[in-house]
Write a structure and sequence with these properties.
Layout lengths: L6 E6 L6 E3 L6 E3 L2 H7 L9 E6 L11 H14 L5 E5 L5 H11 E2 L5 E4 L12 H13 L1 E2 L2 E2 L4 E5 L2 E4 L4 E2 L8 E2 L7 E3 L3 E3 L14 E2 L7 E5 L6 H8 L6 E6 L9 H12 L3 E6 L12 H8 L3 E2 L5 H13 L4 H8 L11
Parallel strand pairs: 1-4, 1-5, 5-7, 7-10, 17-18, 18-19, 19-20
Antiparallel strand pairs: 2-3, 6-16, 8-9, 10-11, 11-14, 12-13, 14-15
Length: 345
């Protein structure tokens, strides 16, 4: 039944935020959401309704995959009319992949879907989980002129709200685990939550939420490095069933000027394999016409991935291929920003 006031659904998938130390082994183990509530009594002080849904069993983020993303999409879709926003508690290691995938799979999204987690378990004295959870809930419930303030898929971590498909994990040790290098934060959190309203993505139509569950995982990431062998690239491009490659190149989209490399890429492209060029750099964009080492890739039919993260490029390709689009249509769609994931000049 729809709540008469603001209501947020917490979806607990697993991860460090929901772990507690086993007193006998010292290992971290998942525990249930009711225990999480006991560790965060502040939840009762919020002036809106909170309900929860829990993955059973909980999944470590290393085990999150397209099947789990589809489950999240189903949960959000089935509960979409009953809640004003959603908070997903998720392990940090693959959070950026999940956030990127959901941004494509939830077409016409017009409510907040905020992913968060922690570097320390919620039961630890210095945990960052409490603040991340409480602030994520506030953001998910926030409205402006009676409309959701942040109606897109985001990651909130360590005082920053970031567009999910622009975010990558950059630190396994510190609390500032995530960064959005090529797009500014949507909000900064201190004493107040300061939203950057002009940066927030809004659905431009009134169509109902459309869930997409089909993903095609015949995608690989190929990272170039000095001395990479022809046999390595040849073997990867010859993988049976391969449909797309995220090619991580140097700088602004450059690669070694090796005839064998160019020939292999041209042959793969002609076989219908979609090859997308993204930079290995943390920040910046691909400009293949800037240097000869990039122009050779452009001439070989390689697509620019613009300023896409690896996580976003991989999941966008899975999403497009899941629609059974022919290679040329996938190539055209990779040039378009579907959910604010790339900056196209």
């Amino acid at each position: 039944m729809k709540a008469e006031y603001t209501s947020v659904l917490i979806i607990y998938t697993g991860g460090t935020i929901g772990m507690i130390e086993n007193t006998e082994t010292g290992a971290l183990e998942n525990f249930n959401f009711e225990q999480l509530q006991r560790h965060v009594p502040e939840l009762k002080k919020l002036d809106f309704n909170i309900e929860s849904y829990q993955f059973d069993p909980p999944r470590d983020s290393s085990d999150m995959d397209p099947e789990a993303w589809a489950e999240l999409v189903r949960i959000i879709y089935d509960n979409y009319n009953d809640y004003d926003g959603f908070v997903i508690l998720h392990g940090t290691d693959t959070m950026a992949y999940t956030a990127s995938a959901l941004s494509f799979m939830l077409e016409n999204l017009n409510k907040p879907v905020i992913l968060t987690g922690s570097q320390l378990p919620i039961g630890v004295l210095r945990t960052d989980g409490k603040e991340n959870l409480m602030t994520s809930l506030e953001i998910a419930a926030a409205k402006y002129k009676n409309k959701p303030l942040v109606p897109e898929v985001c990651i909130f971590f360590e005082n920053h709200l970031m567009r999910g498909n622009r975010t990558t994990k950059i630190n396994a040790e510190n609390f500032n685990a995530f960064r959005s290098y090529n797009y500014p934060a949507l909000a900064g959190v201190g004493i107040h939550i300061k939203y950057e309203l002009s940066l927030i993505h809004h659905c431009t139509n009134e169509k109902p939420l459309t869930p997409h569950l089909a993903l095609d995982t015949n995608v690989v990431v190929l990272k170039l490095f000095p001395g990479i062998q022809e046999s390595v690239i040849s073997a990867i491009l010859a993988i049976p069933g391969l449909k797309a490659v995220v090619l991580e190149t140097y700088g602004s989209g450059n690669a070694p000027r090796k005839v064998w490399l160019t020939n292999l890429l041209i042959e793969a492209n002609e076989r219908g394999i979609v090859i997308v060029n993204i930079t290995q750099c943390s920040a910046g964009t691909v400009e293949m016409d800037r240097y000869e080492t990039g122009r050779q890739l452009l001439d070989a039919g390689i697509l620019s991935g613009y300023d896409s993260t690896t996580e976003s490029a991989v999941t966008k390709l899975m999403f497009l291929l899941g629609h059974r689009l022919p290679p040329n249509e996938v190539r055209q769609m990779m040039k378009i920003s579907i959910a604010g994931e790339i900056t196209v000049n």
